[in-house]
Amino acid sequence: MPKHAIFITTFLFASIINAQTIRLDIGSVPSKPDNGSNIYIAGSFNGWNPKDEKFRFQKSDNGSYYIQLQLGAGKYEYKITRGGWDKVECKKGGAGIPNRLLTIPADTAIRITVEEWADNIPAKPKVSTSSKNVKVIDTAFYIPQLKRKRRVWIYLPQGYASSKSRYPVLYMHDGQNVFEDTTSFSGEWGVDECLDSVKKKCIVVAVDHGNAKRINEYCPYDMERFGKGEGNLYVDFLAKTLKPYIDKRYRTLKDRKNAFVAGSSMGGLISMYAVLKYPSVFGGAGVFSPAFWVGPRIFDDIKKKGKTVNARIYFYGGKQEGESMVPDMLKAFTGMAKVSKSKMTTVIRDGGQHNEARWRVEFPLFYNWLMNEVQK
Fold first, then answer.
1. Residue 12 domain-assigned?
2. How many Cβ atoms are within 10 Å of 62's Cβ, its own excluded?
């Protein structure tokens, strides 16, 4: 019998009700550097897409902005943008603001004020936070499956150059946010700082996301809202192009038991898919705050392919990430438990929100669990 551990403070049960209309008005907005730009809402209900035309505000006759949303019951997080995360709302002095919260059905009409736009504030130079053990392999690594180029980072353990040891490899998505604050949108995971301080060492390879292509590349299924899913090809790249490249040039432990994949949100979805499609390549996954709602066909793949998987899978989700986050994650966990011999654990936080700060806290717990399981 497979051994499964699950840590849950309280189970959430999804309730199904008809979508409700919510109107959101912006009482006032500061002047814009580009006066012709539109205003959008980005949140947990649309994959945090900062320029989703289906979530663009309309302008009323008196010059104010409004939008009507059709959302089911639950809690949602969101921010206001002008089409990009470099043009997101912020505080008057330029400081970032926490994600706004929307609760349905309680909030049906909301009026907010945008204090300032980030690009109205003179940029303060960020200080590099990556450790000396991090470097960029290539700023334009070619992805033949997608015919695109992407920056790829690598973390080599302290003492790598002077030793003959071989190491496990963890492949991560959203590489901009893994090691370096200057390239991250809202803070980095601090993976290098974490690994600098642990005894059980690992190589980490991080691939930048594709900006506007991120949702498509991290979803293996076609989507009505976001278009063609390219996750199948992206996972082919990880397994057939990137891993062989890394194994050839670095001292890695090449077997399945020492190759892992991890990511958050859409990165959580594609990490789950990676172990399902390539169970002989990846022997573990960190599935953080997975956006299963974007690709619900993942549950069909769990039923069909889960029995071929014997991996170590770490599920994490927060109750403040939307009403469906935890139930969907538990559905994936229980689905895998029925058909797979995988060793799994699930961690749920009452106050967990959908952001890098939260995942930075959770990453060491995942890493220690994963490495302890590898040693068994």
1. no
2. 5
Read off the pLDDT of residues 17-42 as tens digits, 9 standing for 90 and up.
457 889 999 988 888 777 668 999 99
CA distance 229 to 176: 22
Token digits for 93? 């002095």
pTM: predicted TM-score of the whole model, two decimal places: 0.79
* Tens-place pLDDT, residues 154-182: 999 999 999 999 999 999 999 999 999 99
What's the token pair of residue 43? Answer: 């949140």
Domain of 193, CATH number, reads 3.40.50.1820
Task: Calculate the CA dihedral of residues 133, 139, 141, 145 and round it to 10 degrees.
Answer: 120
Q: What is the mean pLDDT of residues 222-236?
A: 94
pLDDT at 1 over 60: no
Look at residues 71, 90, 120 and tell me which one is the last residue of a structural domain: 120
Of 68, 100, 120, which residue sits at a domain end?
120
Residues 215 and 230: their CA atoms lie apart, in Å, by 9
